[in-house]
Amino acid sequence: MSSSGSTYGDIHRYEPARESTAAAITIVLLTVVEVVFVFMFAYGLVSGWGLSEYGNMFLGGILAVIFVDLAFILALYRKEFLPDVVIVKKRRRKWEDLYIREEDVDGETLGDGAWDTVKRAVYPYYKR
Q1: What share of the chain is helix, strand, coil (3-state, %, to 5)?
Q2: Which of 49, 72, 93, 111 can pair with 44 through a Cys bridge, CB separation 3.0 to 4.6 Å?
Q3: Which burial class, exposed, middle or buried, applies to 118 when counting CB atoms under 10 A from its CB (0-12, 13-18, 19+)?
Q4: What does the pLDDT read at residue 44?
Q5: Hey, which residues does 14 pair with through a beta bridge?
Q6: 107: closest CA among 119, 91, 89?
Q7: Is the distance from CB of 70 to CB of 80 less than 8 angstroms?
Q8: Whole-angstrom Cα distance, residue 63 to residue 56?
Q9: CA–CA gap between residue 128 and residue 62 (Å, rounded)
Q10: pTM for the complete prediction?
Q11: What are the CB-based long-range contacts (under 8 Å, 24+) for 37-41?
């Protein structure tokens, strides 16, 4: 679904999410696996697995699996359950917002021979 509006804030493209049942079941199963690994990590911390050399590596591996599993859950959720929306934004030059006000973009006119009134376009990155 696209709109023909080009004013700031208009929705340019909107594609609804697929919301598949298979993705929902996969997210639920990955969440169960996540909870099991979190409890295993917590049990390992409490029981002192981290005090030995191999136990510390094992806890690190469990923590890595926890974060990779969480990444898969979030990626699936973003892909399957969030709509794809593109809105119209005002395009500006990179330096325009940082250094000059909008009314001063074209600079000041030359006149009166004073150095302060030299056109800002000569040196646009002038900080105030």
Answers
A1: 55, 10, 35
A2: 49
A3: middle
A4: 95
A5: 85
A6: 119
A7: no
A8: 11
A9: 53
A10: 0.60
A11: 37/62, 37/65, 37/66, 37/69, 38/66, 41/66
Please give the average pLDDT of every successive group of 10 residues along the chain, which has 128 residues: 61 80 95 97 93 92 97 94 78 57 58 53 51
Answer positive or negative: Cα dihedral of 32, 38, 41, 47: negative
The first and second tokens of residue 20, run together, are: 């598949």
Hey, is 70 helix, strand or coil?
helix
What are the structure tokens assigned to 23, written together? 């993705």
Are 73 and 29 contacting, i.e. CB atoms less than 8 angstroms apart? no
What pLDDT score was predicted for residue 128? 47
Give the pair of three-digit tokens for residue 123. Answer: 């040196």
**CA count, 13 A, side-chain hemisphere, 111:** 3
Q: Which two tokens stand for residue 2?
A: 């696209």
Q: Name the residue with tokens 């800002």.
A: 120
